[in-house]
Amino acid sequence: MSRAFTSRVRECLLNLAAAGGAVCIVAVILALAFNITLILFKTGSMAPGIPAGSLALVREVPAADIRVGDVVTVDRPGKLPITHRVQTVEDATGASRTITMKGDANTAPDPAPYVVERVRVVLWSVPGLAYPLAAAANPVVLGATTVAVSGLVTWVLWPRSETPGRSGNKHGGRRRGQHVAA
Q1: How many other C-beta atoms lie within 10 A of the C-beta of residue 147?
Q2: How many domains does the chain have?
């Protein structure tokens, strides 16, 4: 491969890695600022709108903001959180609300109402994206990604030796007016 091609590949890969890093930093800042997280759907209780294997972006909101028809995630003590559509909302003590929920694919509502002060509202979801994201969180994949990015940065920043007569000027590495002593 020519040096020019190798240099272009190196620069392109480094720019892609930098852009990916910048996107990750912005995403983390936005997630923290707006209280946004991701959830993975393991069951099909919200199908067909949100099938099993979907990835959803959710935002935590106070219970006072819940409306009938919202798809929300509720934390359950000692159990996994549940994400279903809100059927009813009633005032409870203080800032709490009592809600009943039902999965779109379920024939009956959830067995008991939930008393909540805060919930996570589903903003949008993408079917099928949960599986690759879960695979990317595998320690082997994370380790391999770390090694690959470290290798790329090392490759890009590794000092390269100058080829004789190719120092960047037309005088073979000497400045004008310099003479080689014999």
Answers
A1: 10
A2: 1
